[in-house]
Design goal:
Elements: H1 13-57, E1 66-69, E2 72-74, H2 76-100, H3 111-118, H4 123-176
Antiparallel strand pairs: 1-2
Length: 177
């Protein structure tokens, strides 16, 4: 971890202060990213709950068919209901997929690596090694965080489409039923 770092031989107090400042900056940035990821997880969980409530108390109560004329059945209600179920199910699947993506372990440096390096490095070199490791892993962490957000947004759109199909189904049943 610290073997390939280029540390000046005669580093001064400004250099040490800058390394400490960089370390603190990365540490706070990582904590903010973790908080954002946790908030996204909370939103995904709430969306799953809303989806299940929508299915249980609204979709299950929709009619399966409407009667345009006494002898002619219109199966558009059934098709719309099935489409609403399909999109609500897709929304739930995307939420679970987003929750499955774990971003927490990407920035953890294994303790055995830290312990193996701590006896040969100064605290400044040690902090530089940690910063370097964080820099390498931060890109992956950001990509996973963005993917979670995209899944959340796409899941919201899926639910909105399911609600639109359900409202259309209810409207057809009301006007032609």
């Amino acid at each position: 971890m610290t073997d390939d770092l280029q540390i000046p031989d005669d580093f001064d107090q400004d250099y040490v202060a800058n390394v400490s400042l960089s370390y603190e900056y990365y540490e706070k940035s990582i904590q903010e990213l973790r908080d954002t990821s946790n908030n996204t997880n909370t939103q995904l969980g709430l969306l799953i709950g809303f989806n299940l409530t929508f299915i249980r108390f609204f979709l299950n109560e929709l009619p399966d068919s409407s009667h345009l004329i006494d002898c002619l059945h219109c199966h558009s209600c059934l098709v719309l209901k099935l489409l609403a179920y399909l999109f609500a199910g897709a929304s739930i699947f995307l939420c679970f997929r987003g929750l499955y993506i774990s971003t927490g372990e990407y920035l953890v440096i294994p303790p055995d690596i830290l312990l193996s390096q701590c006896d040969r490095a100064s605290s400044t070199a040690f902090k530089l090694g940690i910063i370097k490791t964080w820099q390498e892993k931060l890109k992956d962490f950001l990509a996973l965080s963005k993917q979670k957000k995209r899944l959340l947004n796409f899941s919201i759109w899926q639910l909105a489409i399911a609600i639109a199909f359900a409202i259309t189904d209810q409207g057809i049943a009301f006007f032609f039923g």
